[in-house]
Design brief:
Strand content: 15-25%
Strand order of the largest sheet: 1-2-3
Helix content: 10-25%
Radius of gyration: 14 Å
């Protein structure tokens, strides 16, 4: 099940054996995950510092693909997609 987060900030993360195990949101809530996708965009300097400080390497790719989709948050499904 995917969980989309709006108007929240990733403030910390935990990892083991090269795998992110949990993330902290807004300096308070910790959630455990098997997989995490960081869709940071271009203005993500704080995320890059966080990853560096946690010993997680980030590699620059020779290309970038950008897509912007704007829609109301109510269009996102709140129930798991099966």
């Amino acid at each position: 099940m995917a969980k989309l987060r709006f108007n929240e900030k990733l403030t910390d993360l935990k990892h083991e054996n090269g795998q992110v195990t949990s993330i902290q949101i807004n300096n308070s809530v910790w959630d455990d995950y098997d997989q995490v996708i960081l869709a940071t965009g271009h203005s993500a300097r704080d995320i890059f510092y966080l990853l560096h400080n946690r010993g997680i390497k980030v590699e620059a790719k020779p290309f970038a693909i950008g897509v912007r989709i704007e829609h109301s948050q109510s269009l996102n499904r709140s129930d798991p997609v099966t």
